[in-house]
Amino acid sequence: MKQTNNSTLQVPWTGYLAFLVAILLFSGIFSSSDGWLKAFDFNVLNGSFGKIQGVDKAFTFRGVGGSGARDGFLFAFELIPAVILALGLVNVVDGLGGLKAAQKLMTPILRPLLGVPGITALANIANMQSTDAAAGMVKELVDAGQITDEERSVIISYQTSASAFITNYFSSGAAVFSFMLVPIIVPIIVMFIFKIIGANLMRLYLKIVLKKPLLGGINHDN
Amino acid sequence: MTTKEITENKNILDLFIEGAKRGFTIGTTSLLPNVVMAFVIIRILEVTGLLKLIGIVCSPIMALWGLPGEAATILITSIMSMGGGIGVAVSLYTSAHLDATQVTMMVPAIYLIGNPVQNIGRCLGIAGVNTKHYAAIFSICLINALLSIWAMRFILMFA
């Protein structure tokens, strides 16, 4: 098995620092602060396009009143810097061990919340970034007899809803970052909470409709 | 461990450039085509008058979330693709069918629906989920999405 035991997982101190900085960057806490702290805000770093002076008003290069593919192209063109910046930052955080720090911090939380064995934590963490890789890891766990068919359905209920939410949100979601009315981190937290709610709805469904007792990861824990 | 190797071989600037390159690729090969497609879809719906019709037909349902009927197109597109759902959302925003509050409310829902058209193969298929549980899993995704719109509406009251 390729599973890494969480207790032996080495997280460098830079990992925790990178994870903390990432949370600050995307939380928007410093968006309206004055002075140097402003540098810790995603939208401040993303900046703004220059304005082209019109007769009455100044516009960005996209202008106003466009429609169809042409307007869509220029609009998407405006969004690309945000995606470049977001994925650049996420890669720095990952490279410094920030996602490993997230894994270490989340493993003890996920197990009681989902009611599945601790060994599944790695697959569920991988699901933050990849749909396919995480689903493949779940399959391996079932094949190796580490989890049951019902537990697989509970885990997949968690995984498929908002699958690869970090990757997907920071790539396509960047399209709404500039005009969204909540800090960038808020939808991530909402998605994470509902993923957990979804898994528990599946537990409830299995228990009530199919009358399958769930072991809650206690009897065959590793 | 791969992470350790990366930190040893690459400094922060290299890491940023590596991620930024991926961002450029995703931006140009995924986000841009998705947004252009969404703008064209919305254009077709506008020109044919279908958007107005969807707006009227779906308005009693979408009113439950305080959203106009047109917002249903975002949820329908999200069933096929998350990027497409976001694209439709920004298109409806730029064409003034939805305001910033309404788009913000729908952001988590677009992802929570979990594009079942793709994930039936990519997530459930790969993991080999018991087909008897498929309906329940997809229903749960939909429930998650619909509940999240209310949750976001609640959060927006304090934002």
Keywords summarizing the entry:
heterodimer, A: 222 residues, mainly alpha, two-stranded antiparallel sheet, disordered C terminus, B: 159 residues, 8 helices, 81% helix, globular, disordered N terminus
- Number of helical segments of chain A? 9
Number of individual domains of chain B: 1
| Computed Rg of chain B | 19 Å
The chain-level structural class of chain A is mainly alpha
CA-to-CA gap between the ends of chain B?
41 Å
- Mean pLDDT over all positions of chain A: 84
| Molecular shape of chain B | globular
Please describe the biggest sheet of chain B, giving its number of strands, its sense, and whether it closes into a barrel: none
Strand order of the largest sheet of chain A: 1-2
Shape of chain A: elongated
Quick summary of this structure?
Chain A has 222 residues and is mainly α. In chain A, 57% of the residues lie in helices and 2% in strands.
How is this structure best described in words?
The complex is a heterodimer of chains A (222) and B (159). Chain A has 222 residues and is mostly helical. Chain A contains nine helices and two strands. Chain A has helices at residues 13-27, 42-46, 68-95, 98-114, 121-126, 131-143, 149-160, 165-171, 185-208, and strands spanning 52-53, 58-59. In chain A, strands 1-2 form a two-stranded antiparallel ribbon. In chain A, strand 1 and strand 2 form a beta hairpin. In chain A, helix 1 packs across helix 4, helix 6 runs antiparallel to helix 7 and helix 7 (149-160) packs antiparallel against helix 9. Chain A starts with 12 loop residues before the first helix and ends in a 14-residue tail after the last helix. Chain B has one domain (33-156). Chain B is 81% helix and 0% strand. Chains A and B meet through helix 3, helix 6, helix 7, helix 8 and helix 9 of A and helix 1, helix 2, helix 5, helix 6 and helix 7 of B.
